Amino acid sequence: MNKPKWPQEPKRLLLEAANARLQDAKALLKVKRYGGAVYLGGYVIECLLKAAVCDHLGSNQLPGQYAMHNLELLLLTAGLQGELKASAKLLSAFNLILNWSVNLRYKGTFINAEAARKFIQAVTEVREWLLSKRK
User: Fold this and answer.
1) Secondary element (H or E) of residue 10
2) Is residue 97 part of a domain?
3) Is 3 part of any domain?
4) How many domains does the chain fold into?
5) Is 1 a member of any domain?
6) d(CA 86, CA 56)
7) CB 50 within 8 A of CB 14
C-alpha cells in the first residue's frame, strides 16, 4: 500500500494562517468560547513553527514530512530549541503551549477562563519571539 503524499504548504500561507488563527482565538476568548480559543491558539504556534522550519531549511515550502502537530519536534527542526530554552520566560510559555493538542477539539468545553487567558498570553509571547527570529 502506498503512503499518502502530504502536500507542501507554502510558507506565506502558514504565516497568513497564524495571523488569522490568532485573531480567531482572541475573538473566541472575548465571547467566552474558551475551548475554541485555546484550540485555535495552538495552531498559531504550529503554523509559525512550520514557517520557521521553512526558514531553517531555506525553503518557501514546508516539506511534507513536517506536516505534523508535534510542536517540540518542529521547534527542534527549526533550530530554535536551544535559544528558547535559554530564556526562562519563553520556556515557561512554550511549556504551557505544549499542553495543546489537536485532540482539544473533543475537550474544549472543559477549559476555564483563566486557563484560556494564560494560554493565549503564552501564545502571544512565543509568537512575538518566533516572528523576531524570521530570516
Assistant:
1) strand 9-10
2) yes
3) no
4) 1
5) no
6) 19
7) yes
Element (H, E) at 23: helix 11-30
**Please, what's the b/e burial string for 10-37 (b: 16 or more CB within 10 A of its CB; e: otherwise)?**
ebeebbebbeebbebbeebbeeebbbbb
**Position 102 in a domain:** yes
**Sequential pLDDT tens for the chain (135 residues):** 454 455 567 999 999 999 999 999 999 999 999 999 999 999 999 999 999 999 999 999 999 899 899 999 999 999 999 999 999 999 999 999 999 988 777 765 688 999 999 999 999 999 999 999 986
pTM listed for this prediction: 0.91
Name the residue among 14, 22, 53, 19 with its Cα closest to residue 39: 22
- List the domain range (segments joined by +) for residue 34: 9-132
Q: Is 131 exposed, middle or buried (0-12, 13-18, 19+ CB in 10 A)?
A: middle
What CATH number does the domain containing 80 carry? 1.20.120.330
| CA end-to-end span of the chain | 39
Phi, psi of 9 (to 5 degrees): -85, 130
